[in-house]
Amino acid sequence: MSQKPPSTHVRALLTWLAIFPLVTLGSFALEPLSAGWPLPLRTLVLTAAVVPLAVYLVVPNLLRAHGSILSRRAGLVPAVAVIPPAELAD
């Protein structure tokens, strides 16, 4: 049985969890090199690195981890015993 894809809200949160650290770390890494650059050029370089990293590496791994967590949770749900009505009469 395949899982349904995560909701839009979950995907948005996971995307934000990928983008925020990448932008923060990228800004720190780019700062010494781009101190005198105009803001649009700094933004262009930063997003040229962050977007592919997020789309091809970080977000897919976060989605996979999210699915794995949900699968493990589903496996931990105790099974409910169903007793056929004929056995209840005994």
Please characterize this protein's 3D structure:
By secondary structure, the chain is mostly helical. The chain has one domain. The protein has helices at 8-34, 39-76, 85-88. Helix 1 packs antiparallel against helix 2 (39-76). It starts with 7 loop residues before the first helix and ends with a helix.
Q: SS-based structural class?
A: mainly alpha
SSE arrangement, N to C:
HHH
Mean of all residue-level pLDDT scores:
86
- DSSP strand count: 0
Helical content (DSSP H or I, runs of 4+): over 70%
Keywords: Membrane, Transmembrane, Transmembrane helix
Transmembrane segments: 12-30, 42-63
Write the layout of secondary structure elements.
Blueprint: H1 8-34, H2 39-76, H3 85-88
Helix pairs in contact: 1-2
What keyword list fits this structure?
90 residues, mainly alpha, 3 helices, rod-shaped
Short description:
This protein is mostly helical and 90 residues long.
